[in-house]
Amino acid sequence: MLTSVDADLIRVLADPLRLRIVTLLAEETLCTTHLVEETGAKQTNLSNHLKVLREAGVVETEPCGRYTYYRLRPDVIAQLAGRFAELADSARNAADNKRACP
Fold it and tell me: What is the DSSP string of 47-95?
């Protein structure tokens, strides 16, 4: 069953730019400069989205000199995927269940 925490995470990932960031970070660890180049977003806008992803626990940071690298936390994504898999299993098992109307 999806929880309110899952719902918050879904809301965070529903933004197109944040989803693009997550997709890029699934392939490699990147700094803000790389993400600006890849997405075409303004640095301040990108930083705000990265803050949301960081606060939601989706990404983690690694300081490197004057740059900050971002990496995806696959365990968070896998946990959410597991919740959706549970929903799908439940729906398959309940396919023949139909409550009669009063």
Answer: HHHHHHHHHTTSEEEEEETTEEEEEE-HHHHHHHHHHHHHHHHHHHHTT
